[in-house]
Amino acid sequence: MFCGEQERDNAQRRYKSKVEQLKKLLGRTDELKAHTLPPKYRDKLFSVLKDCYSFSTTVNVHQLYEYVVKGEDDITRYKDHILCKVIREQIRVLISNKIIRPTISTAVKVNIDMQPTASNGFYNCHDAIERELFEKTKRYDAILQAIGCVEVNYRDSARDYLIQSSDILANRIWNAHTRRKPILLNIAKHCSLREP
Length: 196
Known about the structure:
Blueprint: H1 5-26, H2 39-48, E1 54-59, H3 72-96, E2 107-113, H4 125-134, E3 149-155, H5 161-178, E4 190-195
Parallel strand pairs: 1-4, 2-3
């Protein structure tokens, strides 16, 4: 997560540089996916952005109700629901750290790895994030009081280095939980939620 275009652009340049260095070292031209790299190279890629804000959600799928994951659209909507929750929590962290002021208009740009989308005419990811941040509900007050904008973009990881970096982070979180290595979760500026 980046607070401004310049911060994002700088991070992307640093990450791209490290990817190109590793590709040359490994003699590869394809995308460096976490599952294809030995741990030492994943760690090198992770270290490039370890001081940036990041967030993750882990879901115990065995505890989900069957109707939540019954079909592909249901799974996609559930993923979007989780994304909204973790974005809301990360924004709350940025507000409490005085990086974002809730009374000043804020643009929230969300870049997501290419995935199926699910809209039934009443629901889409963009609107859900917008409601989560800017509208008062029975459960929550609006987290951002000033009207802002939300932009959701679906990106091809082969063409977006920061989406590639999220693959490295996701792999690290997955390894921490599946291999019981909690040390991998010691990440500065990281917000983590656990769900069903």
